[in-house]
Amino acid sequence: MKRLAQIVALSVAFVMILGVQAMAKTVTITYWHGFTGPDMPYMQQLIKKFNETHPGIVVKAQAIPWGNLFQQLQPVVAAGRAPDVVAVNEDVITGFSARGALTELTPAMLKSAGIDKSRFYPVLWNTAVYKGKVYGVPIHSVALVEYYNKKLLDAAGVDPTKLQNREQFLAALQKLTIDKNGKHANEPGFDPDNVVQWGTMIPLPWMGGSIYYSMLLQNGGAMLNADGTKAVFNSPQAVEALQFLVDLIYKYHVSPANVTEDGSIAAFRQGKEAFVFNGVWRYEDFKGQQGLDFGVAPFPRLGTREDAAWGGSSYLALPRQRSVDAARQKAALAFVNWMTEPAQDLYWTGAGSLPTQPVVAKDASFEGKPMKPVFAGLQYVHPFSGFPWVAQVRAALDEAVGNALLKKETPKSALDAGVSEANKQIADAMANQ
Amino acid sequence: MNRSGSTRHEGGRRRGILAPFSEGSPLLPYLYLLPHAVLFTVFILYPIGFGIYVSVHRWDILASHQPFAGLEFYKRLFDPSTLQFQFFWRTMLNTALFVGLSVPLLVFGALSMAMLVNRPIFGRGFFRAVFFMPNILAVSVVGLLWRWILDNQAGLVNVILSDAGLPKVDFITQQPWAWVSILVSTLWWTIGFNMVIYLAALQGIPSNYYEAADLEGASGWAKFRYITWPMLSPTTLFVVVTTVLASFQLFGQPYVITGGGPSRTTESVLMYITEEAFTNYQFSSASAMATLFGLIMLLFTIFQFRTMARDIGTGGK
Amino acid sequence: MGTEREGRARGGRLARRLRQAPRLALLVILALIFLAPVYWAVSTSLKPESDTVAMPPQWIPAHPTLENYRAVLNMPDANIWRWTFNSLFTATAYTVSYVGLSLFTAYPLARMHFKGRDAWFWFILFSMMIPGVMLLVPQYMMMIRFNWIDTYNALIWPGVPAVFGIFMLRQFFVTIPRDLEDAARIDGANSLQILRHVILPLSQPALVTLAVFSFMGSWNNYVWPLFVAHGNMLTLPVGITMFSSRYITAYGKLMAGTVIASLPVLVAFVFAQRFFVEGLTLTGLKE
Fold first, then answer.
1. Is some CB atom of chain A closer than 8 A to the CB atom of C135?
2. Closest CA to A272 of B272, B143, B154, B312
3. Given CB atoms, is A263 within the 8 Å cutoff of chain B?
4. What ipTM was predicted for this assembly?
5. CATH for the A143-311+383-431 domain, from 3.40.50.620, 3.30.565.10, 3.40.190.10, 3.80.30.20
């Protein structure tokens, strides 16, 4: 009898709990993202705050390393078990959109959720647009920037803000490359085999590929033709950019050959390298390095025509569902909107992201901060994206740049081979559309 | 193929629930095999079958219609004008080179090490643990650790070399050093595994064989040649076959250490298949490659069994 | 083994040590080579991030700190203890089922004669040659359909029918001398009793080895748990990879996490390796 009473009491309590929940109409949505590592605490804090401020919605988040997340996304969509919201990166979002893994965010949906495209940097917003349809909202942005060692630059009398073009920058690099006899790279008798301090270090791809990509755009070149069906990164501008990068190593001797990314980062942290080109995510790394006094600036003008820099970005998107639950979709859109609002974007920059919107970049709290100078260059940041086959084309480009930097091939022949490979990849990918 | 292992089904005593296992029932061996067969079918056979299905269709996981493609994706692998032909066979050759270099070291090195730590010696347990220890690390950690130790600029080895006044070595970006890096990290990581298998097999050799040999005054080499080596032959076959298979499945070390470079010379066939499947989203093409790869492995393994068949046939002598 | 006895016959502990000296020297050199990278990893885990790139390299941390360990153990929302339990439970359950199943399957393949035996052996062996990447997506789809995502079932069962263990045990079983089995059969033993009283004791080193391998394999399994387990259901070695972001690996923290994740397996190995030796004494074949 006693047990029966217990069971009855428990059942009643259970039904009551269910009832209360039903009355409050709580919607639980799931959210997958790849913001692991130092980004994770910031992401968790944001989700916690959203749940606290939105009583009708509970967001359950799961952090999955990016590569794995992208491998799981299509199978879960196919099985009808996709999360309600997913974060995807600039290099895969177009592919997922084209294959139908994501839900189009129609103008009506965006409007009802209060998501306004004018709040974001246009380049970022447009990355998530495929064939005129919107598939994601920018949440995260990074870019290739320049870090310089203040101590070394001061000693050489180089003012980083005065380096306006390639010639000036090259002269500074030569001044900052010193051999063991104290000779500079542009002086007679300079010994390139015994250098104690380097102007910079041009690493092999992947990072070397991002540096090259930025210079290609600066030269007015392009990766693909306008409709994205042919690779064109063997144009004269493209060859010129790669030739200059190779010359930095083998002609001007301001960078060693055979540099790994790890090597270039370590040398900068050790104070043996004046300039290093890397992502904004290195900032925390360098900041934690004792005795390293450094500054950050937009990626310099190493090309010949305009300013440009490689950028990466992440987007919040809604995976395709087998049957659309209106309440959940509404909650998902509310979450996407809230997460990408200026206040949250500002908080998120603490995780090492750049602002995704100009209004945040103008925030007073950035005044005097080391990253502030970089914001001036944000309008020139270009992700390589917009076509379903960007990953394949980028792989072919990286291969070409690596072969040229290692002097296995001339820039021209390396890029020709890369273009031919990229075009075959594009043809294969189009056959599968 | 193994006569010594055969059992005559002489009638054993039937006892209660053990009845089906009694000797003489022709079903007996199949009963033993059944549980594995069921799990094998569900978790391995079905996915393989699925993969083969994918390889003969133009398969897109999200499409409602998966058109039949016949052998199109296999033909690509034999058409020199395709990227698939170019990359598959090139990465296959890279992998074969790695197999050729790594397997002899991993087999004979492991046997030598097992013999070193088999006989009693001061600190035997410690040495065994040390040689086996790297095995417990995940391949990503092994790769990162060695990439960092061998780095062209900042790596420990190059720092030591330059302190000793020697020229630096571009372990990551120049051949043959890139292969040396991958080989060294692989040996360090996995040789203890084979060593432990050999150790278990050495322990299984009855010591009275050696006692008999001692009575006849046999030399150390003679004992190895006429007792240890023949007694180990089924184990050696196992070690060779599994090491060859494992080496052909090379992935993590070049992926992390060299990224497949320089100029894709250390890109393994599995790296390429994975890229085709998950970067290029060419699942059908990747499945066709995986199937062809499996068939090549099978031929290779049959060849190994054939050339060493004599040995396993006499395993139980 | 013969060496040992000869040594004792000559009556000199010292003499034996001297005879062993070259072998010992070789072992010490090998051990140093094997230990150096491990030492470097452990030493790095005890350095502040700033010192990890110091020049000249610090063999002994100049400013030793447990900061990396603290960061790993206190990572917000990362339930290290739960992950450790998941790993231990999964690896143990997997090892028991895997070794048991391999034992029962390898036994008839090695020591019975029946129709289709070799064909079946080759058939299952073929599955070892198919690269795992081809099975990944179908297996994952299957787990979704079984509703097994984020359960121990998904972490354990798909790996149980793997053929490596069967192949390995079969190769050990065929080396067992037939006369022992014949003797048992004359005493009236059936096949289960032969397995229990003849095969099992004789192949104890092989079984322990396989158990260590399968435990380790399950413990270090990386790609599969990332597919089927998330959040609280993650296993430890996978969990610690959450320290890397899209572009960055923090070496100090990675190494600290690796040390934490490796200790249980190392302890298990040191414990189990005693059995490689002891297994022999139980067989009655040793003096």
1. no
2. B154
3. yes
4. 0.88
5. 3.40.190.10
